[in-house]
Structures are given as C-alpha cells and as structure tokens.
Amino acid sequence: MIGFMLFFMPFAVAGQGFLKTQGKLIVNEKGKKVILRGMGLGGWMLQEGYMFKLGTIGQQYKIRDSIQALIGKVKTDEFYTKWLNDHTSKKDIDSLAAWGFNSVRLPMHYNLYTLPVEKEPVAGQNTWLETGFALTDSLLNWCKANHLYLILDLHAAPGGQGNDLAISDRDPAKPSIWESEANRLKTVALWKKLAQRYANEPYIGGYDIINEPNWGFTYPKDRIGNQEKENKPLRQLMMDITKAIREVDSKHIIIIEGNAFGNNYHGVMPLWDDNMAVSFHKYGNFNDQPSIQGFLDLQKANNMPLWMGESGENSNTWYTQLISMVEANDIGWAWWQLKKMGSNNPMEIKITPGYQQLVDYWTGKGEKPSAAEAQATLDELAENLKIENNVYHKDVIDAMFRQVQSIETIPFKKHLIKQNTIINAVDYDLGRQRYAYYDADSASYHYTPGVNTVGNKGRIYRNDGVDIQKEGEDHFVFKIEDGEWLQYTINVADGGKYSLNLLVSADSTAGKISVFVNDEPKAVTIEVPVKGEAGKWQEIKSAGISLKSGLNKLKIKFDKGGFYFKSFRFAKI
C-alpha cells in the first residue's frame, strides 16, 4: 500500500444498502442521513485539453487526432487502451477511501459504451461496446471493496449537450443532442442499458443523467442557457431517460442537472419521480449563503435533496469554506477532479521535458517531433498517469477534510532544529488561512465581476494563497505583500539562544520582517536590504532568539513586502 493512502481517515465510510431520497435528505436503507463526499474522475474516460495544458486543443477527438497525426492510428489506439488501463486503478480508489471520501463520480464518455449514430451499421439501432461497461464494472468492484458509492455521470452524451465543446467532446460540425432525435434516442437507450446492468447494485449511488447542459433553446445567442425560462427540450429528455430507467430499475436515485452548467432550473420543475435529487455546480464565486440561496429556495419549494455535483479548481481556503457551508446545509458534494496537470487537485500528473516539447509543437511554439520521439513521450505520459507516479498534494486533502473540522495547525514537514538546520520557506504549516499563514490574495473569484484575485500566483507546489515559484529544483515565496506571514511548527532539539538566518532576495524594494515564537515577539525588525539584482540571494541575520526545547510555533511576518523568501536556518549562539 502506497504511503500517501494512509494520510488520515477522518470519517468512517461504509455502504448501508441502496441510497434513496427522503424529503430534503439522501438516506441509506436504515433511514440514516448520508452526506456524500465524492471525487470526480475527470480525464479518465473523457479528456479535456485544459487538464493537460493543451491550450486551444480542447476536445478529446482533437487530442486524439493530434496524436494520430504523429504516431499513426494503430499506435494511437494502443495509447488510448493504455490510458484507460493506467489513469484510474484500484490504488486510486483505495486512496480516496483512506483519505475520507465515501463516493466517486464517474464522468462517462458514451463512445466507450456505444457507437456514434453516424457509425451505426443499421440506422436507429445501437451497437453496444464492452469497453465502457467493463471499465465501469471494474470501478464498481473497487468501490465495493472500499464501501464507496459510485455515481454514474453521462459527461459526454451522444452529439454533445452544450456549446462548451470540451466538456462533452462535441464536434460542432455534427448535430448536437438537441438537434438530433437519433442522438436523444441513443442517450435514452444507453441509460436503460446501464440501469439494466446495475439495477441490483446497492453501491451504485445514483444516476447523474446528463452533465452540464449549456444551450440556448429559445435564445440562440445565449450559448450557455442562462436566459432560458422554459427549458422544454431539456426537461423532456430527462423525463424520457427517467421513464426508460424506471422500466428496469426502481431503486436508484436519479440526479438531474439544469441548463447553464447545472444552474438554470427554470421550467424544469416540478419533479416527475419520487426518488430524485437536484445537482448544482459551483466554481469561482463567493462561499456565502447568498451564493446557494437560490438552490435552497428550490429545495424548499420541491422538498428534494440538493447535491453539489461538481466544484473545485480553486485554492485550499476556498475548498474549506465551501465544504463547511454546504455540509452545514446537509448538501453532499463531488469534487473536480482527482488528477490533472496542476497543483489544485489531490494528485498531479507530472509535466516532463518531452511532454512540454510535444505541447509546444501542438500549440505552434516548437518543432515537430519524430514519430519515435512522440511515442517515447506518450509512453512516458501513460506511466506518469499511474497514482504511484503522481505528485501527491496532501495540503488539498487536508483542506477538504481536517481543516473543515478544525482550526488546528500541523506541520507540513517535520522540522527538527539542530545546528544549521535549513527549512524551506514553502514548508510552512498545514492549516487554514489566518491560522497557518496569511496571504492577502487567498482564492480565485473569477466568476465574480470586479474581483480579480487568483490565489497562488505561481500555481505550483502548494494550493494555498501563498505565492510560490521555482528556481531549478528549489521553491521560494514571491509576490510578498505587506502584513502577510507564515507559521512553522519546529521541534527544537536543544533549547537556548539562536540566531535566525533568512535567505532572501530584494531587487528593487527593501523589506522588513518581524519574528514571533509562540505568539510572542522575539526580535526587533529585521531589514531586507536591496541588492539590485533579481535572483541574487543574500542571508540576513537576526539578533538572538530564545527557543525552548521541544515544539515551538515560529511565525515570520512580512511587515514590508516586495522581496523573495527562500529558506531560513537557526545557528546556536
């Protein structure tokens, strides 16, 4: 068992039979409330270009075409087989359970289960493909072994369900699901097939029948469906799917999503089944009661459970705040996503030099690699998909579970202070904003007009608001603003007086630092002089600081920012 799987398990998770709705709650067969704490497996069955730093190459079919142009169809088919085998495994699901999740949301691409309508040998019939069903069976078995519920999510419907093309791998040159009855009929048939297969599986938590519709039915210029007042085609399709499911499965929860990425429910109500939940998705806005009040009002009017089927892609502070808020309202959630290239998810897929060269070619910034070079890079990428080769971001998991329950700070790394022990600046404590650290820009509110914060401006190493950059193999804190601070839990082997030596760089603005130990000021202001050369590190020393043996909380406060902070060490006086 890989080490990071055992980080902590804050909640007991165990299946208790079929989930069902009971008024505003989701409950198990014993009638006990269940708060779903889930993770979405984005990027496995359905690739989106942003997950892999591909710029304007958004849809999966474009990604596949780009690969095929380099290594040919046979090798491309082999690569995608390896992708499906390596991206998500039992180790991933074991880890989710160990961290505290009790559910998994599977974003499905229809083309792993059935042929596109234009490729059917007989028009109007459905050819069923074993690949998707076999993958789903395996995932369900892994979930069962860990007592996790599996929620099936049709992420890419036949034809595609919106104008955000990458979400559903939609080709705008072909009819969408809203423009093709054949696509709608295939969607209904697929759900019936899935329901037949899993009707008696209690670890299937529910059917999320169509992900994030975004379409202007009556206002074509409203491409995401925000202005729709009736949503008749959407309601009809979801009713048709429900009818087909109920012909073979009377037990599982059916989850619906409104237009405009699951947020516009005008005309969708009233509900048409007595075992339904309503999903909403929440990204990049404030985490206050007004931000979800519309859904709470909808819940009150219809007496049904809410489920936040997607959220994430932000900072740890935002995660902790949002999870605290929705759980206080008995709303379960599924995060987006387990792994991609980037640091704001639990697992990060590494970007290698070879992969960067490949992306540079695809985005017009570099030369075309040979077939052999491209093949080697793609083989390396497939290996790096495996969880044992991912970068684990324990701070993300800590923010989603422990920090929701506690304001306590804990060490990010063990810091045993001996003579000249070096501590990297970026290894400050794990904990909430204003408890483990303070950063003036702690989260992104990119969907809030007039608010231009971004959180960690470097977007590497950790997912707090603290701004981090990389130099060679070393990381350092940059964009330091007045009043920000970092806290470190240190274990002093030998109590006494020490000088604190900080490695800093100031190319244009002089800085000032103050030091606190166990919340007591311990040094006069430490000046950070200007050296006039970017990246020129200098060590500055404090006067003597008394440290007791054992654990101490060291706070380094930036009274005047504008410089860079790399590391510090203690020298016994």
Question: What sort of overall outline do the alpha carbons produce when their principal axes are compared?
Answer: globular
What fold name stands as the CATH topology of the largest domain?
Answer: TIM Barrel
Share of residues in helices: 25-40%
Strand content: 15-25%
Main sheet summary: 8 strands, parallel, barrel
Adjacency order of strands in the biggest sheet: 3-4-5-6-7-8-9-10
For the residues shown, what is the average pLDDT?
A: 95
Query: Which value, in Å, is the CA radius of gyration?
Result: 26 Å
Distance between the termini: 44 Å
Uncertain runs are 1-13
CATH superfamily of the largest domain: Glycosidases
- CATH uppermost class of the largest domain: Alpha Beta
Work out the count of structural domains.
2
Task: Please give the CATH architecture of the largest domain.
Answer: Alpha-Beta Barrel
Describe the protein.
- By secondary structure, this protein is of the alpha/beta class.
- It has two domains: 3-44 and 87-349 and 385-398, Glycosidases (TIM Barrel); 407-572, Galactose-binding domain-like (Jelly Rolls), CATH 2.60.120.260.
- It contains 13 helices and 26 strands.
- The strands form six sheets. The protein has an eight-stranded parallel β-barrel with strand order 3-4-5-6-7-8-9-10, surrounded by four helices.
- The relative contact order is 0.10.
- Residues 1-13 have low confidence and may be disordered.
- GO terms for molecular function: beta-glucosidase activity; carbohydrate binding.
- InterPro entries: CBM6, Cellulose-bd_IV, Galactose-bd-like_sf, GH, Glyco_hydro_5, Glycosyl_hydrolase_5.
- Belongs to the glycosyl hydrolase 5 (cellulase A) family.
- Keywords: Carbohydrate metabolism, Cellulose degradation, Glycosidase, Hydrolase, Polysaccharide degradation, Signal.
- Residues 436-571 form the CBM6 domain.
